[in-house]
Specification:
Layout lengths: L3 E4 L14 H12 L3 E5 L7 H4 L7 E4 L4 E4 L3 E4 L4 H13 L4 E4 L4 E3 L1 H6 L2 H7 L8 H11 L20 E5 L5 H7 L3 E4 L5 E6 L4 H12 L6 E5 L5 H6 L2 E4 L5 H6 L2 E2 L7 H8 L7
Helix pairs in contact: 1-11
Amino acid sequence: MIKAIFFDIDGTLIANNGKAMASTRAAIEEARKQGGLCGVATGRGPVELEKVIDYLDLDMFVTYNGQLVYTKQNLIYAKPFSKKILEEIVAYADENYRQVMFGGETKVAGSLTIRLSQSPVMQRYLRFVPKKFPVGVLKKLLQRFSPNRNAKRYQSLDILREPIYQCIMLSPESEKAKLKQKLPSCDFQRSNAYSVDIVPKKGSKLKGIHEFLAYEGIAIEEAMAFGDHENDREMLKGIGVGVAMGNAQQATKDVADYVTLSNNQDGIAQALRHYGIIDEL
């Protein structure tokens, strides 16, 4: 019996127009009426989350790739960066003129470029950018012509006095090895080709899900997750039932227990019906 269901957001819970499909709303409402807990497992933080998920009524929130987990009533798990590791990230960003955004519990600060790219409107446009877009060229242009290209740009940010759960850095996939070498105390989650989510070592959506399930006394076999991108693979592989969206990357589909329709084709409702969690709507 499935008792908890977790949804990635972009490319999964919401369609390409930035809205939740009517079938998704109805399916989640029905699953909750049947006693199931429904929530998100996302790389996004709490800031304006309700707006991003189109004001869906949900039970739990696994945010910042598992680093901050809560319900509407309780904080369940919080794993911010240590001061030392955060200083290493800040130094790397400043020394290499990397655009980076810092995610706290109630606010985000840093690169305006990245903050804009995280908005629902920009996410809709980014879906139409060709997959082979020259990200490295874009990164170099943004770094070269940034109005804030100055030494120690980030070290003076007020937000660095607060717990930081995730950093988002403008970085193409080709820099993966370099980041691992320079920041060995961090893990890297990627949900697009343009930026990388940096979290404390061993941080992941699956880790956050485990924390929530332990809090509720639910076995991992009694949980289901939906996703579409690279940072969803561990979650789909490690949970009781992993569902890949029809629009998911092939590598994500390969580790899933079931591949449903796309996020634009009633994929969530179809999978919940397939597993008998809801009846025909």
